[in-house]
Amino acid sequence: MLKTIFAKRSPNGGSRRAVRALAMAGTMLAVLGAPAQLKADNLSDALIGAYKSSGLLEQNRALLRVADEDVAAAVASLRPIVSWALTATHQYTRAPGTFTLQDGDTNAFDASINLTWVLWDGGQRQFTRRAAQEAVLATRHTLLDVEQQVLFSAVTAYVSVLFQEENVRLRSNNLRLLREELRAAQDRFEVGEVTRTDVALAESSVAGAQADLIQARGDLASARATYKQVVGREPGATQGQPPLPSGARSERDSQYLARRNHPSLLSQQHAVKSAELRVESTRAALGPSFTLRGGIGHNQVFDQRTDTDTRNLSLELGQTIYAGGARQSALRADRARLDAEKGVLLTVQRQIEQGVSAAFATLAANRASLTSSEQQVRSARVAFDGVREEATLGARTTLDVLEAEQELLDAQVERVQARANLSLAAYELLQSQGLLTAEHLNLAVEVYDPTLYYNLVKDAPGKGSKRGKDLDRVLKALGKQ
C-alpha cells in the first residue's frame, strides 16, 4: 500500500525531513534489476527498463517453468514405464562330492526389457495432473503480481527523481534570493537604515539555505541511485510529471475491477482448486489399482552352453490394506492444507477490498491537497512580494522578509510533494485493481507469454520428438539470456 512517501512539512520546519523520508521510501520500494543500455527520460521508458531488466521477474518466470514441468511429470505418470537391463554374472560354488569337495564356476549373461503400466488407479494420477494444471495457473497470476510490484517500484523511483530535482531547483532559487537579501541588508546597514542584527539574520538564513541545498543534492543523488537499481540505468533528463492513468470513476467500480483482475486473488482461487484436487488424489490412492506388467528376456550360461528366451505378461489387481496409518494421515494433512488455502483466500479478498478503498481515498485526498497547495503558493507569493516591497519603504523588517521567503519556499515544496503523491496514488489505485501490467499499460515491450513454454512441455515430450527438439532450442535461448 502507498505510504506517505512525500510527507507534508511540519509548521515548525521539516522540509528536509520530508526529503529524507522520500529518499528512504524510494530505496525501500526498490526492486533489483540488471543493467540495460538505453537511458530513460520519461515514465514510460522507466517502466520499460524495469520490465526488461528485473531479476525478480526472471526469477519468477523460472519458477513458473518449474510449475509447468510438474504438469509434464503428472502426464508422464499416466504412461507406461519401459526399462532394460543387461546383467553379467560370475558364480563360484564349492559343494561336497562323493569323496571330496568339488569346485564349480558359472558364467552367465542376462538381457531383459520390462514394461510396467498402471491401467487404473481410481483416478489418482488424473487428479494429480489437474492439480498441477491449477498450480500453473496460480503461478502465472503470481508472476503478474510480481510484475505489478516491479512496475510500481519504477513509478516510485521516477517520481522520486522528479521530486528531488524540483526540490534542488527550488532551494537553489531560494539561496539566490537570500543572497540578494543579504547584500541588500549589508547595503542598508552601511547607510544606517538597519542594525547589525538584520545583517546577522540574513547571514543565518543564507547559511541554512546552503545546508538545505547540499542536503537536497545528496537526496537527489540517492534518488538517482535508487532509479538505477530499479530501472537498470541512470536517469536521463526527465520530462516532468507523468500523466495520470485513466481508471475507474468510483470506488464501487474499482472494487469490481479488483475482484475480476487482481492477480493475488486469482492466484489464490486456483491454489484452492489445486488443493481440492490433491485431496481427491490422496483419497483415490486408498483404493485398488490395476497394473499391466510384461517383459522379454534372454539368458545364456556359457559353461553349460545353454540359451533361454523368456516372455511374460501379467495383469495385477492390488491394494494396500495397511500401511501403519500413513495414507490416512496424508489425507488428513491434505484436507488441512485445503482449509489453510481457503483461509488465505478469505484474507486476500479482504486485503484487496481494503487496499482498493484506501487507494481510492488516498487519491481523492491528494487531489484536494494539490488544489490547496497551489492556492497556498499563490497566496504566499503575493505575501512575499508585498512584504519585500514594504521593507524597501521601511514598513517591514528584514526578519519579516526572510519569514515570508521561507513560507513561500515551504508552499512551493509542498506543492511539488502534492503532485508527486498524486501521481503515486493514481498508479497505486491501478495496482490495487490488478491493472498495473505491461499489457494493460501498452508498454512498448515484448510481453512475456507464459503459455509458450507450457505448450511445449504439457504433453511431456520425449527428447527425440519434434516438440522435444523445439523445447531444447527454447532452453538454449533461455540459457543465453
Summarize the structure.
Helices cover 64% and strands 13% of the residues. It is built from eleven helices and four strands; from the N terminus they run H-H-H-E-E-H-H-H-H-E-E-H-H-H-H. Strands 1-2-3-4 form a four-stranded antiparallel sheet, with no helix packed on it.
Write the layout of secondary structure elements.
Elements: H1 15-28, H2 43-53, H3 55-76, E1 81-96, E2 101-120, H4 124-190, H5 196-231, H6 251-261, H7 263-284, E3 289-301, E4 306-318, H8 326-392, H9 398-432, H10 450-457, H11 466-480
Antiparallel strand pairs: 1-2, 2-3, 3-4
Could you walk me through the main structural features you see in this protein, from its secondary elements to its overall organization?
The protein has a domain at 15-78 and 143-286 and 342-448: Outer membrane efflux proteins (OEP), CATH 1.20.1600.10. Strands 1-2-3-4 form a 4-stranded antiparallel β-sheet, with no helix packed on it. α1 (15-28) packs antiparallel against α4 (124-190). The chain is an alpha+beta fold and 481 residues long. The two termini are 33 Å apart. The protein is built from 11 helices and 4 strands; from the N terminus they run αααββααααββαααα.
